[in-house]
Amino acid sequence: MESVVFIFSLIDCCALIFLSVYFIITLSDLECDYINARSCCSKLNKWVVPEVIGHAVVTVLMLISLHWFIFLLNLPVATWNIYRYIMVPCGNMGVFDPTEIHNRGQLKSHMKEAMIKLGFHLLCFFMYLYSTCLCSFTTQTAGLLLL
């Protein structure tokens, strides 16, 4: 059963890595003026809720399966994602607002946040990969001991 948890987490982490790369590419396109702020923000806001849900599911899954270290590692990022989504001011288009993205260095902070999340998800990817291999190896070893 542990192997299934880690395989699902690995797949979810791959999706979050691709999403982080998409955020970085889209924000860098806006920074270089390849796209306008409105289309950039509408593209990014479309993926904020799936990112929050994807990360929250893995965090809750680790809590339920009693993997405390991984749960505590994921908890701050999941909390930050939920906080950022909930604290969107009224009247804004979403987390990424085209009227404010060039103000007060928000573009740089969004880019920095996307880079940090990419690094975090890469760390989690290798951690889940190692845990998956470890679980499958211990399951095979236990099966051989029963023979």
TrEMBL record:
<keyword id="KW-0472">Membrane</keyword>
<dbReference type="InterPro" id="IPR003377">
    <property type="entry name" value="Cornichon"/>
</dbReference>
<feature type="transmembrane region" description="Helical">
    <location>
        <begin position="48"/>
        <end position="70"/>
    </location>
</feature>
<keyword id="KW-0812">Transmembrane</keyword>
<feature type="transmembrane region" description="Helical">
    <location>
        <begin position="120"/>
        <end position="146"/>
    </location>
</feature>
<protein>
    <submittedName>
        <fullName>Cornichon family AMPA receptor auxiliary protein 4</fullName>
    </submittedName>
</protein>
<keyword id="KW-1133">Transmembrane helix</keyword>
<dbReference type="GO" id="GO:0016192">
    <property type="term" value="P:vesicle-mediated transport"/>
</dbReference>
<comment type="similarity">
    <text>Belongs to the cornichon family.</text>
</comment>
<feature type="transmembrane region" description="Helical">
    <location>
        <begin position="6"/>
        <end position="27"/>
    </location>
</feature>
<dbReference type="GO" id="GO:0016020">
    <property type="term" value="C:membrane"/>
</dbReference>
<dbReference type="Pfam" id="PF03311">
    <property type="entry name" value="Cornichon"/>
</dbReference>
